[in-house]
Design a protein that fits this description.
Helix content: 40-55%
Structural class: alpha+beta
Oligomer: single chain
CATH architecture: 3-Layer(aba) Sandwich
Number of helices: 8
Distance between the termini: 35 Å
Order of helices and strands: HEEEEHEHHHHEEHH
Number of strands: 7
Largest sheet: 7 strands, antiparallel
Number of domains: 1
Radius of gyration: 17 Å
CATH superfamily: Class II aldolase/adducin N-terminal domain
CATH class: Alpha Beta
Strand order of the largest sheet: 4-3-2-1-5-7-6
Strand content: 5-15%
Length: 231
């Protein structure tokens, strides 16, 4: 079986989204990439999570051409492959319609860093793209979804590993990581901090969030060469 280990990892990431309550029915998808081979493994479109096995994962090239698999790949494939092409440091992508993160996306709002839980994982606000134009929606919608993320990150000089998520305006979040487990983990954390942000802003709408010093302290204790968190 082509890319057996990656297929298993991608399957586990997809199932983690279900386990953590981030997807309903056949919503959402996870993928992973083998950078050496230039091949992507992604969930098949519309297949129930209870039916998923490694053999059903679809393998494509970096431009979405199916290399192995009897099912159609996820309908979000073009977004995934564009992110892989433009963000060469990432190794996996996850897309959900989780309740609170999606609520921020539908409101067209970034998720601000209001506390240290956010700062542990996201080095600043989780941004939200501008709305897609009518032309972008009518033309190459899925590709343009990815392009909106890429353009925003490039324009703002955001390191995709420092902020491994983005909200697509009117749509939902995309998250990523160095491997499928990390991407799924980031999606779970994103939903948690989105819920905390929603609750915090409900309690105190003028809350300005953590200081830069506290953001730095908590982010860098888990990330980078001087990280102190963990064994």
């Amino acid at each position: 079986m082509l890319l057996k280990e990656l297929r298993i990892s991608v399957l586990e990431a997809n199932l983690e989204l279900v386990k953590r309550g981030l997807v309903l029915y056949t919503f959402g998808n996870a993928s992973g990439i083998d950078r050496d081979k230039g091949l992507v493994v992604i969930k098949p479109s519309g297949v129930d999570y209870d039916e998923l096995v490694p053999e059903l994962m679809v393998v494509t090239d970096l431009y979405g051409k199916v290399v192995d698999g009897k099912f159609k790949p996820s309908s979000d494939l073009d977004t995934h492959t564009l992110l892989y092409r433009e963000f060469p440091t990432i190794g996996a992508v996850v897309h959900t319609h989780s309740e609170f993160a999606t609520s921020f996306a539908q409101a067209g709002l970034a998720i601000p860093p209001l506390g240290t839980t956010h700062a542990d994982y996201f080095y600043g606000p989780v941004p939200c793209t501008p709305p897609l134009t009518d032309q972008a929606i009518h033309d190459r919608y899925v590709h343009e979804t990815g392009q909106a993320i890429v353009t925003l990150f490039h324009q703002q000089g955001i390191d995709p590993l420092a902020i491994p998520a983005c909200l697509v305006n009117g749509h939902a979040p995309f998250c990523w990581g160095r491997h499928p487990h990390e991407a799924a983990h980031n999606a779970v954390v994103l939903e948690a901090v989105a819920k905390m942000a929603y609750n915090t802003l409900t309690l105190r709408s003028e809350c300005t969030g953590v200081s830069q010093a506290l953001l730095d302290r908590h982010y860098h204790r888990k990330h980078g060469p001087k990280a102190t968190y963990g064994q």
